[in-house]
Amino acid sequence: MCKIVTVVGARPQFIKMAQVSKELAKNHIEEIVVHTDQHYDYEMNKIFFEQLDIPEPQYYLGVGSGSHGYQTGEMLKKVEEVLFKQKPDVVLVYGDTNSTLAGALAAAKLHIKIGHVEAGLRSFDKRMPEEINRILTDHVSDLLFAPTETAVKNLYNEGVKIGVHLTGDVMYDSLLDYIKIAEGKSEILEDLGIRPKEYLLATVHRAENMDKEKLENIIDAFIESEEQIVFSAHPGTVKNLKNYRLYNRLQDQGTVLLIKPVGYLDMLLLEKNAKKILTDSGGIQKEAYFLNVPCITLRDKTEWVETVDDGWNILVGAEKEKISKAIREFKSNDQNHTYYFGDGKASEKIAKVIKRYHNA
């Protein structure tokens, strides 16, 4: 039997692995889940395993927060210990976090085959730590599961041509499955006292937006907007809001509703019913696109260029005036939705490729 060690550590990775894990089980592939604890509070962690019916991790590494070097180094050491013990055939990593890079490097050093889900994404901005993680992970991986044709081209342009598989996007698989469940179970709109298409949804968490000037620009644009904004705030963001004395400003006005992070089902329903979404999250950019909701991205570049090219996403960075203008004026191109992220069967394709690869 093929044995896989899956390394995850952050909310988007839990969502991505949900469907893949089910398909691995169907193909009789043993999966050992390692959770680095990169996201370590309840809202960003266990609630996703519970809601998505993901296999309970056999290992919690307890790394927690810290600088990029500290996090990656601690994860690398601890993942290596698991790999020595488990001796898997393949290590599977997702996306572009420090957990992704640590899992890939640990496997590469031990000559264990690596599968990278969401391979080939590029923002072409190496100031982003995620971009470094993507590039390094792709160049040590043996199986590269690309979600889009653009991702395949990026890999080919870098000379990575062996082991590349165009599978589609596993987050699209998850969304198709769980949006129906969310519509039947979630009561988040009623709980917050909001109505469909009468609010904007916001998330901000990227390191690039956490310095005082940028975060203040973003918050000022939110506060001065005439729109109702539901702001789902990452714990690290709340910490910075308080450090920069922006938290009370948000609490003292009426247009921004500050809420704690919510589970996946609640988040999907909030996204689907939003008038527009403001975010610096890669995953939420995609989910907005899948749900036909206009997205205002609080970054200068994105790895999901298809959503911009199609007119459903606009890049505004952390410039107050650009954010405010997009809130007022940005409209999606409702006639254009030509880039596709697969057929909802990416997870099935990934599991079958791994099985074939193991049996070859």
What would you say this structure looks like, in words?
This protein is an alpha/beta fold. It has 16 helices and 13 strands. It folds into two domains: 3-169 and 342-359, 3-Layer(aba) Sandwich (Rossmann fold); 177-329, Glycogen Phosphorylase B (Rossmann fold), CATH 3.40.50. The strands form two sheets. A seven-stranded parallel β-sheet has the order 3-2-1-4-5-6-7, sandwiched between helices. Strand 4, helix 4 and strand 5 form a beta-alpha-beta unit. It is globular and about 60 Å long.
Name of the top-level CATH class of the largest domain: Alpha Beta
For the termini, the CA-CA separation is 13 Å
> What is the molecular shape?
globular
**Rg over CA atoms:** 20 Å
Low-confidence stretches: none
Count the beta strands: 13
Biggest β-sheet, characterized? 7 strands, parallel
Q: CATH topology of the largest domain, which one?
A: Rossmann fold
Brief overview:
With 360 residues, the protein is an alpha/beta fold. The chain has helices at residues 11-26, 46-52, 68-86, 98-109, 129-140, 149-157, 170-185, 188-192, 212-224, 235-243, 247-251, 264-273, 282-290, 305-309, 320-329, 346-359, and strands spanning 3-8, 30-35, 59-60, 90-94, 113-117, 143-146, 164-166, 200-203, 229-232, 256-259, 276-279, 295-297, 313-315.
